[in-house]
Amino acid sequence: MLYWLSFLSADINIFNIFRYITFRSGGALATSFLIMLLCGPRFIDWLKHKQGEGQPIRQDGPKTHFAKKGTPCMGGLLLLTAVLISALLWAQWTNPYVWVLIFVMLGFGGAGLLDDYKKLTMQSSQGISGKQKLMLQFIISLIACLCLICLDKKMGTTLTVPFLKDVFIDLSYFYIPFVLIVMVGSSNAVNLTDGLDGLVSIPVIMCCLVFAVFAYLVGRIDYSTYLHMHYVPNAGEMAVFCSAIIGATLGFLWFNAHPAQVFMGDTGSLALGGILGTLSVATKQELLLAIAGGVFVMEALSDIIQVGSYKLRKKRVFLMAPIHHHFEKKGWSETTVVIRFWIISILLALIALSSLKIR
C-alpha cells in the first residue's frame, strides 16, 4: 500500500524512496517485528485463556518436555497475521508473486490451524489424519505451481543447477510433480523441525534471507545477466515478503526462546515451510533449497529413515526421530541442540549465497 506513495514523488521528492525494494524490505521487516513484539504478550494471554491445558505433550518424548505442559500453541496465527499486514502495507499490490505467496501462506496455515484445533479439542498429539493433511497440501501446491508456471512462461518448467552457469534442465510435464514434492516436502520438513524451543526460527530466517537476495537479483535484468542467472520479471517484490517473514519470525523467537512462552504449532510451521518451497520455485532455485534448508532436509530424512528401518527391520537407527530428539536422548541439553542447529543453518545459508559467484 505504501508503494503508491512513490507516485507523489513528482511533487514531493522524498516519496521516491518508496519505489526501492530495499527500503520497503527494511520497512516490512521492522513492521512485522514490532507487531509481534507489541501484540505478543496479549495474544499469548488470550491463547492461555482459550486453550487451558495448552498443546498436548508426546508421551514417548524426552522427559524434559513434560515440564512444557500448559504452554499454549497456535502462536503461528499471530506470526502469519504480522506477515500478512506487513506484506500488504509495504509490497506492491499489483505484483502477482505477492498474491501467490499470500495464497500459499493462508492455505498451508489453514491446514495447520485445523490440525492444531483438533489436537487441542481432543487433547491428543494426533491432529487431522495424515492423508487429509497431505491432500490439502497437494491441492494448494498444485494451484500455486500452475500459477507460477503461467507467470514465468519462458522458464516455467525449467530447473536450474546451483554453482553452474547457463545450465537449465527442462522437466516438461515432470516439473509439476517435482514442484509438488518440493512444496509439500518443505512444509512437512519445517513442521518436523519445530520440536524444540526456538529451533525452527533461525533456519527459517536464514532461508528467507537467501531467497530475498535471490529474488531481488533474478528480478533485475542487469544483476541477473552479470551473475549468469535467469531473469524472472517482477520477482524482486518477493524480497519484501521474505523480509516480512524474517521480522515476524524474529518477533516470534522473542517469545519462543527457551523456556518458550508459546509454541508455533502446525499453523505456523506448515505455512512457513510451504512459503519456502514456493520461493524456491518462483526464483527457480528449487535445488538450492536443499542446501539453504539443509537442517530441514536432515530432520525429514532422519524421520524417513527411522520409519523405514523400523518397518523393514523392526530396528531403529536413531534413539528417537526427528534427529533433534536423538541428540536430546544422548544427553545434549535442549539449548545446546538448538544453538548447534542454528550454527549449521547459518553455515548452509552462506554456502547457498556463495553459489552466486561460483558459477
List the helices and strands and how they pair.
Blueprint: H1 21-51, H2 76-90, H3 96-122, H4 130-151, E1 158-160, E2 168-170, H5 175-193, H6 201-218, H7 221-226, H8 238-256, H9 265-282, H10 286-292, H11 294-313, H12 323-329, H13 334-354
Antiparallel strand pairs: 1-2
What would you say this structure looks like, in words?
There is one protein chain. This protein has 359 residues and is mainly alpha-helical. It has one domain (2-154, 162-354). The chain has 13 helices and two strands. It has a two-stranded antiparallel ribbon with strand order 1-2. A hairpin with a 7-residue loop joins β1 and β2 (168-170). α10 runs antiparallel to α13. The longest helix has 31 residues, at 21-51. The two termini are 38 Å apart. The mean pLDDT is 90.
The number of distinct structural domains comes to 1
Instruction: Give the total of beta strands.
Output: 2
| Largest sheet data | 2 strands, antiparallel
Number of helices: 13
Order of helices and strands: HHHHEEHHHHHHHHH
Q: What is Rg?
A: 20 Å
Estimate the global geometry from the Cα principal axes. Answer: globular
Biggest sheet, spatial arrangement of strands: 1-2
- Helix share, percent: 55-70%
End-to-end separation in angstroms reads 38 Å
Show unreliable segments: none
What structural class results from the helix and strand content? mainly alpha
Percent in strands: under 5%
**Overall pLDDT level:** 90
